[in-house]
Predict the structure.
Amino acid sequence: SQQGEEDPQALSIQEGENATMNCSYKTSINNLQWYRQNSGRGLVHLILIRSNEREKHSGRLRVTLDTSKKSSSLLITASRAADTASYFCATGGQFYFGTGTSLTVIP
Amino acid sequence: ETGVTQTPRHLVMGMTNKKSLKCEQHLGHNAMYWYKQSAKKPLELMFVYSLEERVENNSVPSRFSPECPNSSHLFLHLHTLQPEDSALYLCASSQGLQINTEAFFGQGTRLTVV
């Protein structure tokens, strides 16, 4: 299977806390991407990390990649209610996704 | 607005109906994708088109028939569907199948088969 698998399936935190979600994959990759999906809408690209990178930042997002463990993590710092969404990782040149992590940020 | 437009946004159809979903992108991309999203299941990649040629068909039942008349348009023709085909159908596009490109998604069509 080429798809990534996100963990946990669901996460609920208070506004202001940090949220961490993980992605594991099975095949070799050239890059790994994270996407966000608001309920019932399309996915939106957040960040891409290449296989030769270990960490990348974008605003309140921090992504790490450990190719030896075939895993990645997405950290959202100082979460806001508007961050409530599902988050997906994608691997492979043709964008294979998992089931996602459903994040709820409680105001 | 991502530059990928899907119509209709919602569709209710009977099992004997024939309908089509439409996807249009004005991003100059040459790869387009159809996904099916059902509750509690991974996002399922159904079809991939690159330069208007189908490059992947992931064991999708023949009651789903894709069509890519040009690089800006992608259709999914539906006929004799089953209730379990009810789902959110998402279209996406990217700049080719290069490994370091990102996908742009439409807002999806919520399909209900009755």
Summary: The mean pLDDT of chain A is 92.
